[in-house]
Design a protein that fits this description.
The chain is an alpha/beta fold. It contains 16 helices and 12 strands. The strands form 3 sheets. Strands 2-1-3-4 form a 4-stranded parallel sheet, sandwiched between helices. A 4-stranded parallel sheet has the order 6-5-7-8. Strands 10-9-11-12 form a 4-stranded parallel sheet, with helices on both faces. Bound molecules: iron/sulfur cluster.
């Protein structure tokens, strides 16, 4: 890929986007310059819903594998491109299908909820999908006598169990980016900014969530900070979120709870790779039809409830 100036690269991306009748979707953990060229930015479910709604034939999904898979499950007729095929999700990888199947043999009667951050094949074995924004709501629709297995994030499982007042069997996975944030990190930053409200994602550890003024999805965090009169916030989620937070709230101040909260997989997407995807229509994400149909059931159950 030649090293052309950024403006030329962006012009070329837009020209190929038109030629391909494509749209670009970018998660808020993406690099700033990728968020800036996107037609829509947001969390994984919002982006997949946009993918399903759009008339565009080609979707360039700037995110990680499970997100592009979800878009493909919801819109099999469209071409779903993931500009860097190696952009995976270590949390999703913590629930490999063989281990999930083994667990289900041990617990044959449980209701299975899989977080949207799981592979298509894990979703296909699930009764319901959920996001960090609707996990509590989904759990509340499951009869009280039914045991629940929650895959793959143990911290989100803990948050959901406490909120919904239900016993949940957690899969022992975690997001390395959120789990890295410790109570001590937060206390240190709070001392530096005593007026700031602490907003964290529920993938953070329970002891971190206990210190928060607000716990919610990326979209929840953005909405909370935009609608709240407070001027200062400490943010406990991936650092890409600072881009929309600052853009939407130029008069407010945002401080990271930890500078370490960077998702390396999310940062693998570059402008050059987006251009390459549009030109070559690759790498393409296709979920095999038998898996797609089963995962769609779990996703649709979630969409109907929320
Ligand atoms: S931030 Fe965590 S959950 Fe999100 S893609 Fe990265 S590793 Fe996966």
């Amino acid at each position: 890929m030649d090293n052309q100036p950024k403006e030329n690269l962006i012009k070329e991306i837009f020209s190929w986007k038109e030629k391909r009748e494509a749209i670009i979707l970018a998660h808020v953990y993406q690099p700033d310059e990728i968020q800036d060229i996107a037609d829509f930015t947001g969390d994984s479910l919002f982006l997949s819903q946009q993918a399903a709604k759009t008339q565009a034939k080609v979707i360039v999904f700037c995110g990680v594998q499970f997100m592009a898979e979800t878009a493909s499950i919801l819109s099999p007729e469209k071409i779903i491109l993931l500009p860097e095929i190696k952009a995976g999700c270590p949390l999703s990888d913590m629930a490999p299908i063989e281990k999930v199947k083994k667990k289900l043999k041990e617990l044959p009667k449980v209701a299975i909820i899989s977080y949207v951050n799981s592979s298509a094949v894990v979703k296909s074995l699930s009764d319901y999908c959920c996001t960090s924004a609707n996990a509590v709501q989904i759990v509340q629709t499951i009869p009280a006598e039914k045991d629940i297995l929650f895959i793959p994030d143990k911290n989100l499982a803990d948050f959901t169990a406490r909120k919904a007042k239900r016993n949940i069997i957690p899969w022992q996975g975690y997001c390395p980016v959120h789990n890295i944030l410790t109570k001590e990190d937060v206390i240190k930053v709070k001392k530096l900014h005593p007026q700031a409200l602490l907003l964290v994602h529920p993938e953070c550890r329970p002891e971190v969530c206990n210190l928060a003024d607000y716990i919610g999805s990326t979209r929840g965090i953005i909405e909370f900070a935009s609608n709240n009169p407070a001027k200062e916030y400490i943010i406990g989620t991936e650092l890409g979120i600072f881009h929309p937070l600052k853009k939407n709230n130029p008069n407010k101040q945002f401080f990271p709870a930890s500078e370490k909260m960077i998702c390396k997989d999310m940062k693998l997407i570059t402008l050059e790779k987006v251009l390459h995807s549009l030109k070559k229509l690759e790498p393409r994400i296709i979920v095999p039809e038998n898996i797609r149909k089963k995962s769609l059931k779990a996703l649709n159950r979630m969409i109907e409830i929320t």
